[in-house]
Amino acid sequence: MAETSSKTKYYVGVDLGGTKILSGVFRNSLECVGTAKLSTKSQRGVPAVIERVARCVREALDEADLPLKQVAGVGVGAPGAVNFAEGRVIFAPNMEGWKDVPLKKRLEKQLGLPVFIENDCNIAALGVHVAELKAKPRSLIGIFVGTGIGGGLIINGNLYAGFNHTAGEIGHMVLDVNGPKCGCGNKGCFEALASRTAIFQQIKAGVKDGAKTLLTDMLGDHLDDLRSGDLRKAIRRGDKFVAHIVEDAAEYIGIGVANLVNLFSPEVVVLGGGVMEALADEMMSIIVKTARDYAMPGTMKGVEIIASKLGDAAGITGAAVLARRETR
Ligand SMILES: [Zn+2]
Fold first, then answer.
1. Which end of the chain is more exposed for a tag (fewer CB within 10 A), N or C?
2. Which residues have CB atoms below 5 A from the ion given as ligand 1?
3. CA 142 to centroid of ligand 1, rounded, Å
4. Residue 296 carries which DSSP code?
């Protein structure tokens, strides 16, 4: 049960994704006291999605038995380029019609609370840094592998947003100029090689070409309901086809880590997102070995490469951290 003293202030963190909206109510200590989940339904248009975000905030508060007035602030991680100062989503590639949306202003109007907007992967890195890592490294790179691949950079203890507030777009580092086409228009981007979307596409193409896999026994020929957890099950039952595709993706992630370590020399590299949550046991050793093979000699000394245990909660936790930071 949440404490209902009128003095206690809470923070709500929202993770707005292309397919689902997650929200969580947090105490000042970052203990989560209630969560909610809604599908995004981005095809219904921008105003409808903003209403769903507000509804998701109210549902999490209802779960926690708390009124809106006990919330000090709401943080939102949005999937795209964000103007933090103006609270605008400049562009969200996976959501229909999201161009220059004043999300902060519109949500504040709906909720009557201060709202703060950040890029979703920046916020997830912040969540891991503040809520998960006890040692509080001065520098950290978060790599989040899900539908796409995103990143967040903590430099000198602070989130690094960059000149245009677009830093951390690591999913579009080109790792293979002759590689598969990416949603951004380039070829061989990191996320076109190693995201869940990329892994699923390779599996579907292989099945079409007659590859033998347990996934077709599990799900039939369509494979549209494929989830990261199915890959883990298939690999553990000895599915060589799936294991090979997942190993290739892990190698590309290792190469991505090596590039980033060469560039930033971080103390810690944290891997998160849905794919890592489901497949860390299968992928981590390959990622670490490949990163060490590809990085410049000397650059990996003492660098920790770890999997986040926050999973899906990294986004809502980081969004609550943002709200706490901005309302103090
Ligand atoms: Zn790209």
1. N
2. 172, 182, 184, 186, 189
3. 18
4. P
Give distance in angstroms: CA of 196 to centre of ligand 1. Answer: 14
Selected from 3.30.420.40, 3.30.565.40, 3.40.30.10, 3.90.950.10, the CATH number assigned to the domain covering 10-125+313-327 reads 3.30.420.40
Distance 199 CA to ligand 1 centre (A): 15
Q: Which CATH number applies to 134-307?
A: 3.30.420.40
Q: Phi and psi for 113 in degrees, rounded to 5?
A: -135, 155
pLDDT per residue over 298-315, tens digit each? 999 999 999 999 988 999
The amino acid at 99: K
* Residue from 217, 220, 214 nearest 234 by CA: 214
Distance CA 222, CA 237 (A): 20
Domains 10-125+313-327 and 134-307 share a fold: yes
- Rounded to the nearest 10 degrees, the angle between the axes of helix 228-236 and helix 240-264 is 120
Do 90 and 100 touch, CB atoms closer than 8 A? yes
Q: What is the pLDDT of residues 270-295, one digit of tens each?
A: 999 999 999 999 999 999 999 999 99
User: Rounded to the nearest whole angstrom, what is the distance from the C-alpha of residue 177 to the centroid of ligand 1?
Assistant: 11
Domain residue ranges of the chain, discontinuous segments joined by +? 10-125+313-327, 134-307
pLDDT in tens, 75-90: 999 998 899 999 999 9
